[in-house]
Amino acid sequence: MIMTRIHFLVATATLVFAFSLAYASDPSPLQDFCVAIDDPKAGVFVNGKFCKDPKLATANDFFYSGLNILGNTSNPVGSYVTPVSVAQLAGLNTLGISLARIDFAPYGLNPPHTHPRATEILVVLEGTLYVGFVTSNTDNKLFTKVLYPGDVFVFPEGLIHFQFNGGKSNAVAFAGLSSQNPGVITIANAVFGSKPPISVDVLAKAFQVDKKVIDYLQAQFWWDNN
């Protein structure tokens, strides 16, 4: 009887320990990378931003004004993103959420991109948008939908997605993101506009095209609509 109880306690302790390991993990990074240093005085980042003394906080730390203003869509892609992340609204620090307004000219595009640190939920206020995302390898399945005012669509974290205004009038959407600093990687900009450029040999092999095609693409100006 005593041995049975001991076995039960050992088994319970083992399960508790196993579950604690299963749920233990490092916090999600809030920037692209954070190189370790031995001298903390030489550090410039924590995972996120340094916190203000709560006694010194004011209402303005939690306030942002300007999302009523139309973004300038007079650019090659015909769209403009106005972000409200921790960089614009300090009170978002550690809260794991941010917001963006996206303006579209007729036939404007928010090009294929990813948010490495956030899921995005989009709601259309004006106009019509054709939106979609692609799943990861090897399926690479495309999910698309045409959205009208009041419609909502979700783009899972890290997946390539886009929004396109196929109408003859302007469109406006708002997006909520599950990170104070979601990050954005516009695919064409990253692949063909990196600094320094990716080797032509690498890209020609990856895209299975002639090197002249890569030379042409790398010579373009890849507009950042953020």
TrEMBL record:
Transmembrane segments: none
Keyword Manganese: yes
Keywords attached to this entry: Apoplast, Disulfide bond, Manganese, Metal-binding, Secreted, Signal
Disulfide-linked positions: C34-C51
Gene Ontology molecular function, alphabetical: manganese ion binding
Binding site for oxalate: N110, H115, E120
Annotated compartments: Secreted, Extracellular space, Apoplast
InterPro entries per record: Cupin_1, Germin, Germin_Mn-BS, RmlC-like_jellyroll, RmlC_Cupin_sf
Cellular component terms per the entry's GO annotation: apoplast
Residue sites binding Mn(2+) per the record: H113, H115, E120, H161
Annotated signal sequence range: 1-24
Domain Cupin type-1: 65-215
Predominant subcellular localization, coarse grouping: secreted
Any single Pfam family the record assigns to this protein: Cupin_1
Protein family according to the UniProt entry: Belongs to the germin family.
Name of protein: Germin-like protein
Source species: Nyssa sinensis
